[in-house]
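To start, an entry.
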Amino acid sequence: MKINDKALWKNLFKYLKPYLFRYFVCLVMIVVVVFIDLLIPRLVQESLKTLGEDVIDFKKLVNLFIISVGAVIFSAIVNYLQSVLLGYTANRIVLHIRHDVFTHIQSLSHHQFSSEPVGKLVTRATSDVNELYALYANVILNAIKNVVTIIGVFIAMMLLNVKLALIVLAIFPVVVIVTIVCRNKLRKIHREVRNDVSNMNAFLSENITGIKTIQVYHQEKKKYNEFNERNKSLKKNKIREIFTFGVFRPSIYLIYILSVVVIMFVGGNMAIKFNLGITTIVLTYDVLYTFYQYIAKFYNPVQALADEYNVLQSAFAAAEKIFTILDIKPEIVDAPDAIDIELKGDIEFKHVWFKYIEDEWVLKDVSFKINAKDVVAFVGATGSGKTTILSLITHNYEIQKGEILIDGIDIKKIKISSLRSQIGQMLQDVFLFSGDVKSNIRLDDENITDSDIKNASDEVCLTPIADNFPNGFDEVVYERGNNFSLGERQLISFARTVAHHPKLIILDEATSNIDTKTETIIKDSLERIINNNTMIMVAHRLSTIQHANKIFVFNKGEIVEEGDHQSLLKLRGRYYDLYMMQFENHDKKELVKN
């Protein structure tokens, strides 16, 4: 999605607005520097006049020299202060933009995350935001400075010699035409470069994360070729960018040289005629020299604008990507009348229909009720809708039909933060953050003390394992917890869940990837806390859910059976078939108790 320039400037100005006073101060400093910059050639001109007099006034020359040196020093000090203030302000703005991007990304739903590769989101929050630093730190005020300089120099040239000033003005539209011609080309190329960078980051993120799988199946060469194609595309567009700007910048310089040639020819001819007494036009060589300096000062900002134009187009291309992300409306948001609740654990689905994509229903008219402190299990084949139920209970998706009630209240009327803060989840794929064991249990919740961490770890039997770590609970956790075994990661996740004192515990295949010993530890721990919480489990290993009060059997998005373990076996239906498949090597008569 493309955003027009007006909308872009509006969004960019929104972040600049709180710092307008600082920018105004910088602008005043710029005007002072420009004034001094225009004053120097006149001081030089005055010095040349003094040197051309029959009797040289050395005192005047010394005074002019002191004033010139003082002006240069003062200009340097003002420039330094302006650079520091502008750099600090630009960094503050970029900080706020990056904060907003990250916060907004966190607000997106699971469905929205699935449609945006992680690498692209990382690019938006990092390199794309960095592109805006140059815009706020340099381009905006430098563009104003250069425009002010151009106007000031032109006025000075008009005061010096109208005819030569008009010649410069007549040539200037060529600069405008060249700029307009290159503008759209540069913007298009910059967009393609930003797309290539995003695609590259997305590819790297996915393939570095899955490097073990790539190596196991010897796909390094294939992945290298895919990477090389993206790399070549980025190189191609970067070369196009360099070539296009390589034409633009020298074109401006060529116009500057032509201006100098024309002014030197016309001005030199006027000076010669005056000296020969042929004409009454007054143009001395000191005026011609001063005018030459003004031409340089006139075109230097023009060339600077050309340079900054490239930065501006790059920043605009990055801003389009950033504000496109920020313009995505989160699918799951609190209703205006949403309330906080003290979760008891009653859950009811009433005729719920749900689909991830059009015309493919994952849940079809699902209805069930879970009472507070019940232990409930969902079983069924892969893709039957079990995990989807858990995602709907935590309000990660919106249903298309039906109603979900939590403690008798429509889930849409409960604040998302209030609901999720009282739910603890143990997933099949445990995610640990870089830090240490303690921080992964606490998860930045300062209300959880070291004592709470110790008690939770005792509860799930993590303490004896943590005691064997070199640094105990301060043991460093590397990226994704790769320095811990699956069982250790699962126990840390379990301690995390218990430490947050949830009212509802969800286990989604939490014991499927771990060893028998760790599974036994978790099952024993669950039995100790089972009476205080509502517990919902999804499991393929039916031996782990035999103690559940209710078992719901799913098939193709529908509940086909429900009851406890023994009653479902007696039905000899879908659950019985699943159970027999898992225990076919045992004596089936012993498995079914009358």
In short: The CA atoms of residues 428 and 513 lie 7 Å apart. The two ends are 64 Å apart (CA to CA). The longest helix spans residues 220-275. DSSP finds 19 helices and twelve strands in the chain.
